[in-house]
Design a protein that fits this description.
There is one protein chain. By secondary structure, the chain is an alpha+beta fold. Among the domains are: 152 residues, Beta-Lactamase, CATH 3.30.450; 120 residues, no CATH class; 176 residues, Heat Shock Protein 90. The chain contains 17 helices and 23 strands. α7 packs parallel to α8.
Length: 731
């Protein structure tokens, strides 16, 4: 067959498939991400404006509502006085009337000042308790503050001071204006910090003669409390200031005043202890050359600490003379956090799309070219075959090579490949079937082996412990029983000797010599101590024998309700020789945190074996870590085993045994319950203890055994057992 040659260089098929996919996906995702970012920034500006407008409207509504109350109360009281319903000359009744009004309105003060210099009022200086003030015309000590009962009656004098109506702005300013106004903000440290705005108005009698002035104060610190509860205050700042720059209220935790000794002094917003309020106020002042020129709402972007802040400055006025500025500031990052997150998501999506496009292009090219490349290699290796099928010549480099070889091999290759695949499938099925059989047999062998080891170990251990306990118990009981009689006989003999000494004090020199030779007084004293020591020793042996019998439980092969704490204490007694103080290290401290548990139905002997395995492993771990520490180091950080028991729920108990050894790595913890797995040296462990314990708890008792370990801190084994066994799960 004639060979075809082309002048242009051949492009690999994989590159033809991959590159266009990658460029298209990268360009499309990048453009979408850029447009999303720009739209997000525009949305942030719109959202910031909406948030600040909404916040300004909320503040405006609150100021209109909150600051209208004092003037309404003044109007009510002025009308009552002019109509003769309220006699201001009866100061006691007027004060009680004001006391009643204080119960209904959230005000700080309601009172009157008369042209005679007299006056009275009701106050809530601490925000809770209402008191009554009453003053005469002439100082000194003409002002009295009274505590009140629940009916508004005077009970006792709290404080006195000098007072003159005609020196107070809340009296002089409305009288001078001849109409209702707000007097300038006052600060008084009287019992509590007192910063108030006074709504004042002149009062007249029925003949329209001036009687004086009536005022209602409102505590401005409550405006700060309101601002702190706004949603925007969590990340931004809201503050209110006068046209002269004096701070009225703010959402900051800092107070809008300073306390110098006992003198309360207001501060300017540009001197606020809160750095963000101070910086924003200074920039607003510089931008508008002061605060007086701001006549309408202004929206700004100001920088603080290198970060942009959206700022909205809104004037607020009322008909009684207040002219304030409300400033709302929100950091740009509050809104940009989500935009930045979306940008990062877009970048990750772009990279992910690029990776997916690359992978898809690679898989597609691999799917297309791999069969062709395989046919090419096969045709070159089997070029001597006789094949009837042919392929068309292609301009792609790989197909061009394949076409010349494939004409000689298609038929025979198809048949051979089919036969080979069939044989391979049959072989794989047989291998998988045989592997599954071997795996099942291995699991059954390990399970059977573990059960045999467990049964043999429990039988041998129980018989050995029970036999030793029985053999020790008989002679010890004999000795212990006879010590009582021996003690009685000894006491009788001693009383006989004492009686003899009293009746015949110097009877026989040989007796006296023998008494001195054997040191009779020491012998009498030491003999009683010796008998007490022998009794203590036999008691100790009897306790150990009882613990051995409780631990082995050789006579209890069925489920039985037992005291879990008794089994724990028996196991600890058997392990006492490993816990006590040694020359090379101090004793291991055992901390018992026992809860109130009911008796638990279980195989007592097998449960004691689990407790023995867990406690012995904890002691081994502590001994291993103590081998690398000196005695003084262990005293500073003593070895501990903490045993905690509790009810995990109404139907199961929990036993937790923890140590402060070095813990274990994750790969060791994951295999701790596998049969024949051990980290101990050869001859010191078979790897069956924890595997058998796991089977005893989970299979024979229907409970749970879990291990928790932190490398460098310690390990904890938690045993959960049902208090009652519904159906026997013994295997």
């Amino acid at each position: 067959m004639k060979k075809h040659h082309f002048g242009i260089s051949k492009i690999p098929l994989q590159m033809v498939l991959i590159i266009p996919f990658v460029l298209q996906i990268f360009g499309a995702v990048g453009l979408v991400g850029y447009l999303s970012f720009k739209n997000g920034q525009k949305a942030v500006n719109d959202l910031a404006e909406q948030l600040m407008d909404r916040t300004s409207n909320i503040v405006d509504q609150h100021l209109n509502s909150y600051l209208s109350i004092p003037h309404k109360v003044n109007q009510i009281n002025a009308d009552a006085i002019q109509m003769g319903l309220l006699d201001v000359r009866d100061r006691k009744k007027a004060a009680k009337f004001f006391w009643k009004q204080m119960q209904a309105y959230d005000l700080t003060y309601i009172g009157i000042g008369l042209t005679t210099g007299e006056g009275t009022g009701a106050a809530r200086y601490d925000g809770k308790t209402v008191t009554i003030d009453d003053w005469g015309a002439k100082p000194p000590k003409n002002w009295f503050t009274y505590a009140t009962d629940n009916q508004g009656n005077h009970t006792s004098v709290i404080a006195t001071l000098d007072w003159n109506n005609f020196n107070e702005p809340w009296y002089t300013e409305p009288v001078k204006a001849g109409r209702p106004i707000w007097s300038r903000i006052v600060t008084i440290n009287y019992q509590y910090p007192y910063i108030a705005a006074s709504a004042s108005r002149p009062i007249y009698d029925a003949q329209n003669h001036l009687l004086g002035m009536i005022a209602a104060d409102i505590h401005l610190l409550k405006l700060s409390e309101f601002l702190r509860h706004l949603d925007v205050s969590r990340s931004g700042q809201v503050f209110i200031l006068e046209r002269n720059g004096m701070l009225i209220a703010n959402s900051s935790t800092q107070q809008p005043f300073t306390l110098i000794k006992e003198d309360i002094r207001r501060i300017k917003a540009t001197d606020s202890p809160d750095p963000s309020i101070q910086s924003i106020a200074k920039q607003i002042q510089q931008t508008f050359n002061g605060f007086e020129s701001i006549t309408e709402s202004k929206k700004l972007q100001l920088n603080w600490q290198g970060e942009a802040n959206f700022v909205n400055v809104t004037p607020w006025r009322d008909q009684y003379g207040l002219d304030w500025l409300v400033v709302v500031s929100v950091p740009k990052h509050t809104f940009m956090a989500q935009i930045n997150a979306n940008t990062r998501t877009s970048i990750l999506l772009c990279l992910g799309a690029l990776a997916v496009a690359t992978l898809m292009g690679y898989l597609t090219s691999h799917w297309i070219t791999q069969p062709i490349l395989q046919i090419k290699r096969a045709s070159q290796a089997m070029a001597s075959g006789d094949l009837d099928q042919t392929l068309d010549i292609n301009n792609i480099q790989e197909l061009n090579v394949l076409a010349h070889s494939f004409n000689h091999m298609a038929g025979q290759l198809r048949e051979s490949f089919t036969a080979l695949e069939n044989g391979k499938a049959e072989l794989e099925d047989k291998v998988e079937e045989r592997t599954a059989e071997l795996k099942t047999a291995l699991n059954e062998l390990q399970h059977t082996q573990a059960q045999m080891v467990q049964s043999e170990k429990m039988s041998s251990l129980g018989q050995l412990v029970a036999g030793v306990a029985h053999e020790i118990n008989n002679p010890v009981n004999f000795i212990h029983g006879n010590i009582t009689y021996l003690n009685e006989y000894t006491q009788d003999l001693l009383r006989m000797i004492h009686l003899y000494q009293q009746r015949h004090p110097n009877n026989d020199p040989e007796v006296q010599a023998l008494a001195e030779e054997i040191d009779l007084e020491f012998l009498i004293e030491d003999l009683q101590k010796m008998l007490a020591s022998m009794k203590m020793g036999t008691d100790r042996i009897r306790t150990i024998v009882l613990s051995l019998r409780n631990f082995s439980r050789i006579d209890e092969a069925e489920f039985k309700a037992v005291d879990i704490h008794e089994g724990i204490e028996s196991t600890l007694l058997i392990l006492q020789h490993r816990l006590k103080d040694k020359l090379e290290c101090p004793a291991i401290v055992v901390i018992r945190d026992y809860g109130k548990l009911p008796e638990v139905e279980c195989y007592p002997g097998q449960l004691n074996q689990v407790l023995m395995n867990v406690l012995a492993n904890a002691i081994d771990a502590l001994d291993e870590i103590n081998a690398n520490r000196i005695y003084q180091e262990i005293e500073v950080n003593p070895s501990q085993i903490i045993i905690r028991t509790s009810m995990s729920n109404s139907q199961s108990v929990e036993i937790a045994i923890a140590d402060n050894a070095g813990g274990m790595p994750e790969q060791v913890k994951n295999r701790i319950f596998n049969p024949f797995f051990t980290t101990k040296p050869i001859g010191k462990g078979t790897g069956m203890g924890m595997a058998i314990s796991y089977q005893i708890i989970t299979q024979k008792h229907g409970g749970k055994l879990e291990c928790f370990s932190t490398l460098g801190e310690g390990s904890e084994f938690i045993i959960q057992l049902p208090t009652q066994q519904q159906v026997s799960t013994a295997v």
